[in-house]
Amino acid sequence: MYLRAIHAESHIPTLRRFVRDHPLGTLTTAIMSSEYPFLQTSHIPWVIDVKDDSSMTELGILRGHMARQNPQAKAMVDSATLNMPPGTTGGVQLKDEVLVLFTGPVHHYVTPKFYTDTKPATGKVVPTWNYAAVQAYGRATVYFDSGVASTEYLSHQISDLSQHAETAVMGYTEGDKKGPWKVSDAPDRYIAIMQKAIIGIKIDITRLGGKFKMSQEMGEKDRAGVIDGFESLGTEIGTETARMVAQRQEMMKGAKS
Average pLDDT, whole number, for the chain? Predict the structure, then answer.
């Protein structure tokens, strides 16, 4: 990820919160294989585990799962099998680093017409795109056998992911008329069959970085024009983009004071 200092976000709690708020991440692997493409990517929802949520430095662990029939899953299983000592059960760590990209839902084209200061003064402005993204690099452990450790990992992961999605994403609470959906609401036999069709993935994060590109590179008057321009669109995405540009502007002012 190309990171200009003005767009970079290195505050670890902010990055972890971004992952929690936008759990659908794009997993990218680079695995040498005679049968599958070297580079593969899949959209997967993740849970991020942190031992101490108040920590300013703990990167955390990502937990997810994907369909066993996914070619990327097959390549990971093949790679894990090649490096697996005889008699090994449970998770097997891949030798190469993987990447998960999390992208915020708020992104928008920025027209030069929004730059109310620089455009009329010099005309030296060009279009761009505002967005927010977080990249997590790490070592992946794959759970793909039928042993107890893998079965327990998958059961724990899908339960936690469902709970997070039902409460944090959907907003359902135990006090609701129906409450959040739980894995236990489905027949045990059905869940067991579904679980056999997936593999588990755990990623020990080794690097975490973010980019919040929200017109920080422009002068204050141009940023004000961007905020006004997005608000004038009268759309939900425009209003939210304006809010994020304003938020980042206030953060810049706070950092200078």
Answer: 95
Query: CA–CA separation, 42 vs 191, rounded Å?
Result: 23
**Over the stretch 102-137, which tens digit does the pLDDT of each residue have?**
999 999 999 999 999 999 999 999 999 999 999 999
State residue 32's pLDDT score.
94
Residue 28 is inside which H or E element, if any? strand 24-30
CATH number of 8-109+127-217: 2.30.110.10
CA distance 101 to 186: 31
pLDDT of residue 252: 83
- Inform me whether the pLDDT recorded for 8 exceeds 80: yes
Tell me the backbone φ, ψ of residue 91, rounded to 5 degrees: -70, 145
Q: At what angle are helices 236-256 and 220-232 packed, to 10 degrees?
A: 160
Side-chain half-sphere exposure of 222, counting CA atoms within 13 A:
22
Q: Where are the domains of the chain?
A: 8-109+127-217
How far apart, in whole angstroms, are the C-alpha atoms of residue 250 and residue 257? Answer: 11
